[in-house]
Amino acid sequence: MKKSYSSLNVLSEKMTADFKGMFHSIFAAKKYITVKLPYYDYLRGQVFIEDVKDNYPEEISSFSSFNISQFVYMLYLDFMKQIKRGVKNEEVANYLSKSMDKYFPVNIIQKRVFNKINNNLFQYEEYEIEEDLEEVEGEEEKYAYLTIRIQQKVILRGEILLHDLAPFLKGKAITVEQLMAIIYLDFIKSVKENGNSVAVQQSIVKKLQNK
Q1: How many angstroms separate the CA atoms of 204 and 119, rounded?
Q2: pTM exceeds 0.70
Q3: CB environment 66-99: b (16+ within 10 A), e (fewer)
Q4: Within its chain, how far is the Cα of 209 from the centroid?
Q5: Distance CA 95, CA 167 (A)
Q6: How far is CA 191 from CA 95, 141, 194, 200, 203, in A?
Q7: CA–CA separation, 106 and 104 (whole Å)
Q8: pLDDT digit string (tens) for 44-81?
Q9: In DSSP terms, which residues pair with 126 in a beta bridge?
Q10: Is 159 exposed, middle or buried (0-12, 13-18, 19+ CB in 10 A)?
């Protein structure tokens, strides 16, 4: 299996590893991954977390170190719980495909190359190149890079999900890091559109208390 679904490429590694000791390594090991976020959305998340701490100081006093990296991880775990309960793969794939176009747009460039077939025959070959839209347009948007400590088994579950979704994604590549960013950015989009929700803040406090 050559395709990589995260920077750690856990699924491919496990497919090619010796069976002996494999399950121990999956469930025991923890790794670090990096999630890239637009800087404003990163700052908006920090403000949201501070709002939760201010609104529920007693309930969250034991979690003063709660930060945005942990919050992104929490949202990801909630998403994976929904997957466990049963969701149609095609519906999830459609959601992620639209989200990739929204948050990670690319520009498709058509290239033509004049190739020599033999001494008397030449032909044009066409191929496509994907470039990040922000690079093509010369934008200088700032980004934040979150380092998240995560169990290998949690990364593996995300990679397996993306592998299962691949037939519905029409060749579109998505990584676990991008999946985490999408879930977070959708949450922040909701906050920006609807404001802070008491119910959402209470659910976050409850999840922290039940950790």
Answers
A1: 69
A2: yes
A3: bebebbbbbbbeebeeeeeeeeeeeebbeebbeb
A4: 25
A5: 14
A6: 19, 21, 5, 10, 15
A7: 7
A8: 999 999 999 999 988 887 877 889 999 999 999 999 99
A9: 112
A10: buried
